[in-house]
Write a structure and sequence with these properties.
By secondary structure, this protein is mainly alpha-helical. It has three domains: about 120 residues, no CATH class; about 70 residues, Serine Threonine Protein Phosphatase 5, Tetratricopeptide repeat (Alpha Horseshoe); about 100 residues. It is about 75% helix and about 0% strand. The chain is built from 20 helices and no strands.
Length: about 400
């Protein structure tokens, strides 16, 4: 009699186990028939620790594999009602497949899970790209990181243990950067830089992330490392020059500007930058030469024309101060010094008038500065020939009111 009772107990336990595993099968069938809401409801019962009947299905790898399939189907469905079933179904799918792998100690499900994880990656990529384009950078970063995590699963590394997905690493860096997670951005950019992906660009982005953190030393170190590997990369050069300019290291800035010009003499911005640097250290004549070279290379370079005009205009203003300092009883000397003002202003006018021609291509502040400078120049010239300059002065005066 005792043997009969024991036998019945074993049969009952086996029946219970199959009954619960049947719930997993049922959930899969509901998913296959398109009833995602019922499938989700059913599979969640099998992993609910508060459900006494789920103690047999929670440790079963198949339960979590099916759960992953159902959540992935929620992401893939076109039915808006089903899409509302979960806010982040791919994360649930990812976590479910991962859990299944952890529970699969006897390696019974590795082949099917490997296939499921392989199929999950395109969905995560789609989600990451859409999120990035919609400026949801945190979700984009999360999705890229899940792809990277999948690549690191032992079951995925079996076929290609040395695979490094540099594209996903780089995109994870971009997402982190735009999500203002600069530490992670630097981490991913640094990793991808090891493999030479996008050559010098990761070093520029590492520097940019460090600058946004307020760490110009690390930014410069990254650029210097990148410059050693890619000495012909002008983007690295430009960023190095900018940091040296921002930190008032004029000698270093000039050194790398000369190198940049040597590598790309037809880049007008390099000549312009050199001109501003000369301006900054008080070497006006050299600044003029650099600005002139900039407009020689690019005859539409507004800023170079403006700086040339401003240089000569300011020279005239300083000369005006010299003329006003002449004693009142020395009219001849006064007229002599005053005439020198006109010489400078005559040089400034063509450059500022060229700026006026190019005004449609610049911002409102630059437009106002151009018109106001021309108005002042024409006003000063009216002192020598009112009839010739008054109409031009009035035009600028009226235009300034409308800017």
């Amino acid at each position: 009699m005792k043997r009969t009772i024991i036998l019945l107990t074993i049969v009952f336990a086996t029946f219970t186990l199959f009954a619960q595993k049947g719930k997993v099968t049922s959930a899969l069938s509901l998913k296959e028939s398109g009833k995602l809401d019922k499938a989700l409801e059913t599979i969640e019962l099998t992993v609910d620790p508060n459900n006494e009947k789920s103690e047999k299905t929670i440790p079963w790898p198949k339960t979590w594999e099916v759960r992953g399939e159902i959540y992935q189907a929620v992401f893939q469905t076109e039915d808006e009602n089903f899409k509302k079933l979960d806010d982040d179904p791919l994360t649930k799918a990812f976590e479910s497949y991962k859990k299944a792998l952890e529970l699969d100690e006897k390696d019974k499900f590795s082949k099917s899970l490997k296939l499921k994880l392989t199929m999950l990656q395109p969905d995560l990529t789609t989600q990451a790209i859409d999120a990035f384009n919609n400026e949801n950078y945190k979700l984009a970063l999360q999705s890229f990181e899940q792809i990277l995590a999948i690549n690191e699963f032992p079951v995925m590394k079996e076929d290609n243990p040395n695979l490094i997905d540099t594209v996903i690493l780089f995109n994870a860096g971009l997402a982190a950067y735009n999500a203002t997670n600069y530490e992670k951005a630097i981490e991913y950019y640094s990793e991808v830089a090891k493999y030479g992906y996008n050559e010098g660009r990761p070093y520029v982005l590492i520097a940019s992330a460090n600058k946004l953190k307020g760490d110009t030393v690390s930014a410069l170190n990254a650029l210097q490392e990148g410059f050693k590997k890619y000495p012909n990369d002008n983007n690295i050069l430009v960023e190095m020059i900018n940091i040296y300019l921002e930190t008032d290291k004029t000698d270093e800035a000039m050194k790398y500007l000369d190198l940049a010009i040597e590598q790309d003499p037809e880049n007008a911005s390099f000549h312009f930058a050199k001109g501003t640097l000369y301006d900054k250290i008080g070497q006006g004549e050299n600044a003029v030469k650099s600005y002139e070279k900039a407009v020689e290379v690019d005859d539409m370079y507004f800023n170079a024309y403006y700086n040339l005009g401003a240089f000569y205009y300011n020279k005239g203003v300083k000369q005006w101060d010299v003329a006003r300092a002449v004693p009142a009883n020395d009219n001849e000397k006064y007229e002599e010094e005053l005439a020198k003002c006109d010489q400078w202003w005559d040089k400034a006018i063509p450059y500022m008038e060229k700026c006026f021609e190019l005004m449609d291509n610049v911002d409102n502040i630059s437009q106002k500065s151009t018109v106001e400078t021309l108005k002042n120049l024409y006003y000063r010239k009216m002192g020598t020939d009112r009839e010739a300059w008054e109409s031009k002065y009035n035009k600028m005066d009226e235009m300034l009111k409308n800017l």
